[in-house]
Amino acid sequence: MTDRLAVWLGGNRVGAIERAGDTIRYLPAVDAPLSVASAGLAPWSPELTRNWFDGLLPEEGRRTRLAARFGLRPEDTFGLLREVGWECAGAVAVLPEERTPGPGSYRPVRNRELGKILDALPSIAELPDEAVRMSLGGAKDKLLVAWREGGWALPLNGAPSTHILKPEPERFPGLAVAEAWALAVAASATAASEARVDHDLGSRPVLVVTRFDRETTPTGEIRRQHQEDLCQAIGAPPLAKYAPNPLRPESPSLAKLAGILAERAADPPEELSRLLTQVAVSVALRNADLHAKNLSIINDRGVARLAPVYDVAPTTAFIERQSSMGLPVGGTWRIDEIGRAHLLREAQAWGVPQGVARSVVDATVEALGVGVARADGLWPEVSPKARQQAVAGILAVSLQDPGRRAVSARRQRATTASHGG
């Protein structure tokens, strides 16, 4: 028996996903640039199909709970897309064959009801059945909503969302404000998603993030932008977002993203400079969670440009054991050992001239200094530890080789401890 789902891109049908037994395969119907990982109208391999479309679905526990809601197995990519693929990241929609994309509808929801839904997460029992036709990748608890006519609404039947609501994890108090602060700092150096913290949506602070892949026109129409994260762009599975070995062909790396931009961007030097800025921002703000699903491209009919920063937080202030980057920079994993020299080495591997790379790093450091003052004004309640670590990280990026000093400092502490000092 063969089942099919229709795949739509920006309102145009571009192909279908076909399932035969446990195998799924994407069959392009037109030469539309669904992914930079594919070539033309050739059918995708089952592996690429599963990897790419899994990138549209939740991960880990969120995926398991979603599958249970519909009586499916968590590994049933086809079945999950049939149920919730109507509103996804970017401009992709996956629908049953008999349906076509429509504007959908919105159900206004008061803050009290929305807070009840958010407080219930990770359970989705409080979410109305009719609303669960939307999907967003990642493992963290979140909810897609739309801001319509001065209030929140739940998107129904594939209607586009405008915001992501991320309740603060109970085990990391202060993280929501720290992430809003970090995004405000980052915005002084590069394009970044807008974020704020709402303390009136339930019992926990909620980070409210404006989606970078949605645009609301003056008439109120919500337009989708096609995007894909780095895992999708290289055809890797979502679980490969942390590169265990960046030298393996299937592993993501900053160099692979740089290669995509060099080959497909309208202005490769500009996009590579933006990528270096984004990496420097994450290193400086002590965001060790820079992995392949937190880096994306806007795919404009095959022309790639780097998406804005959208998931930056001073993670080392909340998870002290998280000292390794999601992706290595200049061959180094430990974030407290990465400095200016590593950023320049990484940029050199992309083919960026050293003079240009030095100017980019210098400009980023200067902008982040201004950004800290601005973010302090917006979020004066930010965790002192998170702020102190970020300020120290900005200083480290401005120095020639803070990594060597960090290693020496750790060795000296270890020597002192061994001598009972």
Would you tell me the overall average pLDDT? 90
Biggest sheet: strand arrangement? 5-7-6-8-10-9
Number of strands: 17
Topology pattern, helix = H, strand = E: EEEHHHEEHEEEHEEEEEHHHEEEEHHHH
Low confidence ranges:
402-421
Q: What is the tally of helical segments? A: 12
Largest sheet: 6 strands, antiparallel
Structural class by sheet pairing and helices: alpha+beta
CATH top level assignment of the largest domain: Mainly Alpha
Overall, the morphology is globular
The total number of structural domains is: 3
Radius of gyration: 22 Å
The CATH architecture term of the largest domain is Orthogonal Bundle
Oligomer, anyone? single chain
CATH fold naming of the largest domain: Phosphatidylinositol 3-kinase Catalytic Subunit, Chain A, Domain 5
Rounded to the nearest angstrom, the distance between the terminal CA atoms is 72 Å
Strand content: 15-25%
Give the helix level as a range of percent.
25-40%
